[in-house]
């Protein structure tokens, strides 16, 4: 997987949330959490798996809403922060963090009600294999996001320390079909890429985000959206 060593470094884990979700990055965090909540719906008493859970920002959020959730990641340093978040939120009993390989998930077939991954597929070197595994362990739902090939994301992706895989809609649809999944909903957002928002103060980012949202609502803007959220069901 791209950037595997970079991602697991202790210093990256310590600075990950602060670099990506402070200032204008808060808008990204808010939108991503909304996307997860809208896709998964009520999660109380559901068994949920999060792939590439990182520092647990989604894991803990869903546990607070009553989900029994497993967070899987390759970075022990990232998950250590997630465990601390769960403890601070008082939901440790609902969360299990596991170090594991998303290409060989250590769970039986149809084990979870829902399986999701955020900020994962742009790093995946074998996306078909990962998606097939997510489908295998899910009884019903698979949700994930991608960065889009024909978007502003392509302008700066070569600058990222780990590279970034970009997807067209037809490629995603092919991956879903090959994994035995049926697309039931999709949403597209952020004409301006994430990297732009992370570099500007929150008070500047908010009005720019408003303009971005208006542009994205147009036919042209949606086609230029840099991020897509894909909601699928097991066939």
TrEMBL record:
InterPro entries: Methyltransf_11 (IPR013216), SAM-dependent_MTases_sf (IPR029063). It comes from the Archaea. The keyword Ribonucleoprotein does not apply. Residues 49-140 form the Methyltransferase type domain. One of its GO terms (biological process) is methylation. It holds the Pfam family Methyltransf_11. GO terms for molecular function: S-adenosylmethionine-dependent methyltransferase activity. The keyword Aminoacyl-tRNA synthetase does not apply. Keywords: Methyltransferase, Transferase, Ubiquinone. Gene3D superfamilies: Vaccinia Virus protein VP39. This is Ubiquinone/menaquinone biosynthesis C-methylase UbiE. It comes from Halogranum gelatinilyticum.
């Amino acid at each position: 997987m791209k950037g595997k060593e970079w991602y697991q470094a202790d210093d990256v884990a310590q600075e990950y949330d602060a670099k990506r979700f402070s200032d204008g990055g808060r808008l990204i965090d808010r939108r991503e959490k909304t996307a997860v909540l809208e896709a998964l719906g009520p999660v109380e008493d559901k068994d949920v798996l999060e792939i590439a859970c990182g520092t647990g920002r989604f894991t803990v959020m869903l546990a607070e809403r009553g989900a029994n959730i497993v967070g899987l990641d390759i970075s022990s340093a990232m998950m250590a922060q997630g465990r601390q978040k769960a403890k601070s939120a008082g939901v440790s009993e609902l969360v299990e963090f596991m170090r594991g390989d998303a290409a060989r998930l250590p769970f039986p077939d149809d084990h979870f009600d829902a399986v999701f991954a955020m900020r994962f597929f742009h790093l995946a070197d074998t996306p078909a294999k990962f998606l097939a595994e997510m489908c295998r362990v899910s009884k019903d739902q698979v949700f994930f996001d991608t960065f889009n090939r024909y978007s502003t994301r392509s302008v700066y992706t070569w600058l990222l320390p780990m590279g970034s895989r970009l997807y067209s809609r037809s490629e995603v649809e092919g991956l879903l079909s090959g994994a035995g999944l049926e697309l039931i909903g999709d949403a597209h957002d952020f004409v301006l890429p994430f990297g732009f928002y992370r570099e500007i103060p929150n008070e500047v980012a908010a009005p720019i985000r408003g303009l971005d949202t208006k542009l994205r609502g147009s036919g042209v803007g949606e086609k230029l959206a840099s991020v897509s959220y894909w909601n699928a069901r097991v066939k």
